[in-house]
Amino acid sequence: MESTSARLRAAQASHNSLGRIYGSAIETLPQTTKDTIGYSSAAHRVMREDHQNIGIILDHLHDGILQAIKLRNELNSLLDEVDCETHREIADATLDQRDEIIAAGHARAVTLHAKYAAAVVEVHARTQALVAPIATKIVNNSRITAGSGTIAQELNSDSQDEADT
Question: Which top-rank group of organisms is this from (predicted)?
Answer without folding.
Answer: Bacteria
